[in-house]
Amino acid sequence: MTTNSSGDDAYARAGVNIDAGNLAVQKYRDVTSGWTHPDQLGSLGNFSGLFRLPGDATRALVGSADGVGTKILIAAAVKRYDTVGADLVNHCVNDILVTGAEPLFFLDYLAVGKLDPHVASLIVAGVHRACRENHCALLGGETAEMPGVYRPDHFDLAGTIVGMVELAAIPDPNRVQPGDAIVGLPAVGLHTNGYTLARALIPEDEYGAPFGMGTFADALLAPHPSYLQQVRAMRAVADVKSMAHITGGGLLENVPRTLPDHAAAVFEQTRWDVPPIMAELVRRGNLQHEECYRTLNMGVGYTLVIPITDVDAALAAAPGARVIGFVQPRRDGEPRVVVHPARTA
Amino acid sequence: MTTNSSGDDAYARAGVNIDAGNLAVQKYRDVTSGWTHPDQLGSLGNFSGLFRLPGDATRALVGSADGVGTKILIAAAVKRYDTVGADLVNHCVNDILVTGAEPLFFLDYLAVGKLDPHVASLIVAGVHRACRENHCALLGGETAEMPGVYRPDHFDLAGTIVGMVELAAIPDPNRVQPGDAIVGLPAVGLHTNGYTLARALIPEDEYGAPFGMGTFADALLAPHPSYLQQVRAMRAVADVKSMAHITGGGLLENVPRTLPDHAAAVFEQTRWDVPPIMAELVRRGNLQHEECYRTLNMGVGYTLVIPITDVDAALAAAPGARVIGFVQPRRDGEPRVVVHPARTA
């Protein structure tokens, strides 16, 4: 059970409250603690939930639910409806990928203030296209017309993915050791996190203005990529010990879930590029180092912990992958994640 | 792929457009027709989607996504947050139940304008309670704080259920024959359909007014029941040939999906009770016969087609079940469903 309100001071100023999010997760644990289904594996608060496949000792089903978040408000503002489906599906694919699962099927939930069949079909076509690219069935979905909840020109898009994993193939963070490399896969932009902040810093009347090779809208709506092919290729040639999908909470909150207590991740930001749209947000918001790495992915979409001996093979298997940090010993009270900035503040 | 905008003239007057809904479903078929996953069984437009379980010749996974709809606006107005979870989960349980599936796990999506951890935990507690009652794991979920999409006091709640079915246990509407009985399970109220109409006919300032044994809010928020136990009990003793969950579209649109082309369902409304809240809506809206049975469940929550020889055993197994109609021969051009009113109009 996750909340999408991770962030910090800058995020809170933009209207998203991280303390409320953490408190909600704590309360969810309380209200659900009285009963857990006996076939449920793992706990709330991870990227995905695992469920023992009935009558099968070797496999588990993996499920994850997510939404596109307020990125949809930018899509609605510029009437670009064909990319949010990829945001949603690829986010979900990556969330179950960290367990080692391959996608089976997906279901979407589209809620609108006023149903425009053409717009709705553009959105669903994008969902279907992304499902196909991930060889994942679009098994069904629900479109709800809800006047009074959504503005006529607004919508919300959420979905659930189900995948399957061999129990023996589930990565185990406890195998991670100091000296292991952390390989990163590049982010193309904000993906699906940080948009409430981005919308506060880039007003709607600038969406059409030139930025980089296109407009601000182009940069802000760059679709969340699927890392399925790259991760599959690396796992075929390297011992991948644990993985993280860098979503809300950034490197600082997502990477610790992939490490044992006695290990810390130390990243060197000189080793990768921060996308221009992210640098622009940092500049406009005067975001401090910690704020950046807790609110935004800062250019890293996915991380894999790999023993140093397997790194060359892994990098050769996945174009774009690079070593961005290392696992180091950690003592009690020390930070779980350190990001060395490219330049001093 | 279903849309929740089923209804008719009265519904359209209330702001939900059935033509747009049907057109959207048609367009979804068009945009998704280019590719279907090879393990996907059945087609879009049914209650649930079926997916062949990899490496297992005898079983399928069944998935269904749904939302609570504008019933949440009534819950938000009277600040009653503990029942919408049951609405959502039980709706989903019933949707996959028509395929014969038993639930495995559920994931929820909660979107809010401003995250109040207490309110969110009441909602999630209701989801968890309903999951437990259906012996269904609450495998995960997402809570999204989306200022600008939702009003601070508004929320939306949707979810996805996954179940499993033996392929041999999937009901087959083609086995239905004239002379079979149609057994109905009683609805306790509107369940999760017709709320945009209900909200147009019963203004918010009346929610606290006395109605029946309680208030209008009590009647309007009566939780959608799960029919899992009753259906399981009937299937254990009777040959259940096909089943329908009576949701948006009412008896007129949901029952045809459970019949072969040469058969019609003929219901006698003297055989069941219309809940008082439904009668009140009919009176206030001056709803015509066809409008009622296409927009509201009119007191029937679930239907099962059972050979006449098995009816006594089925009724004995499920308290509340009763015979509400029969299957009759149908010629081309004749209606698929006829409801004989309790009294002449």
TrEMBL record, chains A, B:
Gene Ontology BP terms: 'de novo' IMP biosynthetic process; adenine biosynthetic process
Residue span(s) of domain PurM-like C-terminal: 177-335
Keywords: ATP-binding, Cytoplasm, Ligase, Nucleotide-binding, Purine biosynthesis
The keyword Electron transport belongs to this UniProt entry's keyword annotation: no
NCBIfam families: purM
Family under the similarity heading: Belongs to the AIR synthase family.
Protein name in the entry: Phosphoribosylformylglycinamidine cyclo-ligase
